[in-house]
Every structure is written in C-alpha cells, then in structure tokens.
Amino acid sequence: MKKEKLIKLSEYLFDKITGTFTGFVIGLWAASLVSHFFATRSIKNLWGLASKKTIVDKQTFSVLEWAASVLIGYIVFEIVLRLIKKELSPWIERAKNSISKRFQKQEFGPEFQEY
Fold first, then answer.
1. How far is it, in rounded angstroms, from Cα 112 to Cα 109?
2. pTM (predicted TM-score)
3. What is the span of the domain harbouring residue 73?
4. pLDDT tens-place string over residues 2-48
5. CA distance to 18, 22, 81, per residue, from 86 (Å)
6. Is 1 among the domain residues?
7. Which residues have C-beta within 8 Å of that of residue 41, sequence separation ≥ 6?
8. How far is CA 60 from CA 25, 67, 89, in A?
9. How many domains does the chain have?
C-alpha cells in the first residue's frame, strides 16, 4: 500500500512539473510571437508612424497575446504530452517494477503485512 502511494505521488509530481513547465515556456513563446507581428502605439515608434509592424491598441494587443497563448499552448501541450507519455512510458514501468521489487525484498513486521 505504501509503495502504491509512492508510485502515485511520483507520477502526479512528474505530470504536474512537466505540464507546468511546458505551459509556461509555450505561453512565453506565444506572447513573443504576437509581439513579433504587432505593436502598440508608443513613443518608441513615434505613435505608430515609424513602426514596420501592424499597429493595434493596447487592449487588442493584450487580447491577441492571450488568445495566442491559449491556442498555441493547448496545441503544443497536447502534442508534447502525448510524445512524453509515449517515450517515457517504458522507463516509468521499469521504475515502478524496480521500486516494487525493493519493497517486496524488505521484511516488515506483522503490523505492515497485508491480509
């Protein structure tokens, strides 16, 4: 029972860490992608007169960043998650077997025996 909890905990932590990190990186990339094609009016580009990018107002720019982050993030996250599970599944199974063998070799007292 203890080994099952340890295995479930390690799987949960791996999924959360992988998902959070991947989502963060993809969100940053998507936001920078929007700023590569669009710009807002500011003093840096003489209120849009000297800009070579498409000029949008700040609210539209933030909506575009949010939409791009959600859309691209979801698509890439699904692809990466499927690839990670496909590639790491054999490794995880070997780790589970190794952990369960270690716990089976240990001798526990009668209070830890399962009935």
1. 6
2. 0.51
3. 24-104
4. 777 877 888 888 878 777 777 788 778 877 888 778 888 778 777 77
5. 14, 16, 8
6. no
7. 47, 48, 55, 57
8. 23, 10, 42
9. 1
| 12 burial via Cβ count (<10 Å: 0-12, 13-18, 19+) | exposed
Residue 39 lies in a domain: yes
Position 27: which residue type? G
CA distance 35 to 31: 7
Residue 3 counted as domain residue: no
Counting residues of the chain whose pLDDT is more than 70, the rounded percentage is 87
Q: Which two tokens stand for residue 69?
A: 């982050």
Rounded to an integer, what distance in angstroms lies between the CA atom of residue 72 and that of residue 65?
Answer: 10
Classify residue 61: in a domain, yes or no: yes
Residues 70 and 77: their CA atoms lie apart, in Å, by: 10
